[in-house]
Design a protein that fits this description.
Number of helices: 15
Shape: globular
Oligomer: single chain
Radius of gyration: 24 Å
Helix content: 25-40%
Strand content: 15-25%
């Protein structure tokens, strides 16, 4: 008998998906079907692939309320946050069409009787492993460019967001995507492991934790033919300088740290305050705003600003991180608190690492957590702030608040992150830009606008118009390589 699993709402424990976990036979069949459909899909005219993608965007627009409510129900996002995710998923279509045209379209350079041509061929079958926190947009951010590039897809949504995953698969089919082009498998880690082992997989795209990324990297050891694109987590710093109002600091730091209940990989985990005449005022403003944030559930009479974590287990794991931070020498500023209504309704917490030792600070920089928990630290000057911000094995996002343009240029070049903002939240990312991290936050395969780059292989050709073209007429650097 296949193993059964459920996706349970973090709002009220309603079962939103109840079904069997994909068996090895199911997984093999899904991958085989995707492989058999690869040539047909690759040979489908690009204009037709684009039209299907635009049909999908229209389906999202036409059913925006339905999918927004499902996202809220299954992963606990507040309605505005879920709606923004749907908007991003819709916008991803035109952005990807533009990216394909600008970055991966056929290029021809002619010189006399010689043409130099670059074509882009699809990888084949791409396995997409989706996260729970953006269950529609983030897997779509890999699926859309992969499909437009001519790949077929095997999609495993998070086992905590399988209902949204199934909805998305159905939406693509209603948009006209041929049945064999995108297959869904479902379940937990064992399902992903089984699929990765398939010799028919040509690429693996993961959005997830550092631990998951490392495990897949190890599993694919010795298989350089499989392209691996990792979008992983971060221990993201925000540095607060001078020349910025305290209200703006409070807004930007708390939004960076606590939006989506801290369940974004780009959320700020550390806030570093440069000691100056504004430092304590800035810290007080952040602390007071954190204490005033309304924590609750969608539909509450008082509209909440911070919603629930994905599960009670997630809350338990976050509490362990909080206790670990205290064990590393942090001092409590805003204490751990759970709303009595639900165990996964966690209030934002702040701890102070100012008096921690260098060893303790290094350990804090190596932690990864997912929830409304912020570490603050006072630092002597800007150079110390940049050094402290870069004191992590991760390198996803970072922000500088205040300061000068010269300071920001230094920050961009020294902080070691893939998304670096000025006077904006760490969570600020534009769909027209790359999105990816350095260090333990990725593997040099940025997503966002640049996701199109890892969805195809460039093929170079030198072409002469006739077979009798004299070799002597060709410049030797064109042929002798």
């Amino acid at each position: 008998m296949p193993k059964m699993f459920q996706s349970i709402s973090p709002l009220d424990d309603t079962v939103l998906f109840d079904g069997p976990e994909s068996t090895p036979a199911n997984i093999s069949q899904a991958i085989t079907t995707a492989r058999q459909s690869a040539i047909l899909w690759h040979n489908t005219p690009l204009s037709q692939r684009i039209q299907i993608a635009r049909n999908y965007a229209k389906h999202l627009s036409d059913h925006r309320d339905e999918i927004r409510e499902l996202i809220t129900s299954e992963v606990g996002k507040l309605p505005w946050d879920a709606d923004a995710e749907v908007g991003a998923a819709i916008g991803k279509i035109d952005l990807t069409v533009n990216a394909l045209e600008q970055r991966r379209s056929k290029t021809v350079i002619e010189s006399g009787n010689l043409a130099r041509i670059v074509r882009y061929h699809p990888l084949g079958v791409a396995l997409v492993l989706g996260p729970f926190n953006f269950p529609l947009h983030l897997p779509g951010g890999q699926i859309v460019p992969a499909l437009l590039s001519g790949n077929t897809i095997v999609f495993k949504p998070s086992d905590q967001a399988t209902a949204v995953g199934k909805w998305m698969i159905d939406a693509w089919r209603q948009a006209g995507l041929p049945d064999g082009v995108m297959q869904m498998i479902q379940g937990g880690v064992e399902v992903a492991v089984n699929a990765i082992d398939s010799p028919l997989i040509n690429a693996v795209f993961l959005t997830g934790s550092r631990a998951a990324g490392r495990a897949i990297h190890r599993q694919l050891a010795g298989r350089p033919d499989v392209l691996l694109a990792l979008e992983l987590g971060g221990n993201n710093p925000v540095v607060v300088s001078d020349s910025i109002p305290s209200k703006a600091v409070a807004d930007l730091v708390t939004f960076s740290a606590f939006v989506s209940a801290g369940q974004r990989c780009s959320c700020a985990r550390r806030a570093l305050f440069i000691e100056n005449s504004d430092c304590e005022t800035h810290i007080d403003a952040v602390v007071q705003q954190t204490r005033s944030l309304v924590v609750g559930l969608p539909g509450d009479e008082t509209v909440p600003q911070v919603g629930p974590l994905i599960s009670t287990l997630a809350a338990t794991q976050l509490r362990k991180t909080y206790d670990t931070l205290l064990a590393h020498g942090c001092r409590v500023v805003v204490p751990w608190q759970v709303n009595p209504r639900r165990e996964n309704l966690v209030h934002p917490a702040i701890v102070d690492a100012t008096k921690c030792t260098d060893t303790q600070l290094a350990a804090i920089g190596d932690l990864e957590w997912f929830g409304p928990l912020l570490v603050i630290q006072r630092v002597a000057d800007f150079d110390s702030a940049v050094s402290a911000a870069a004191n992590t094995s991760y390198g996803l996002a970072a922000s500088l608040l205040g300061g000068t343009s010269n300071m920001f240029e230094t920050f961009v070049n020294s902080v070691g992150a893939g998304v670096v903002n000025w006077n904006r939240p760490t969570t600020g990312a534009a769909g027209s830009l790359p999105f990816g991290g350095l260090g333990d936050s990725g593997n040099h395969r940025p997503a966002g606008y640049h996701a199109i780059d890892f969805c195809s292989d460039p093929v170079a050709s030198l072409q002469s118009p006739t077979e009798t073209e004299s070799f002597a007429t060709l410049a030797p650097w064109d042929v002798v390589k």
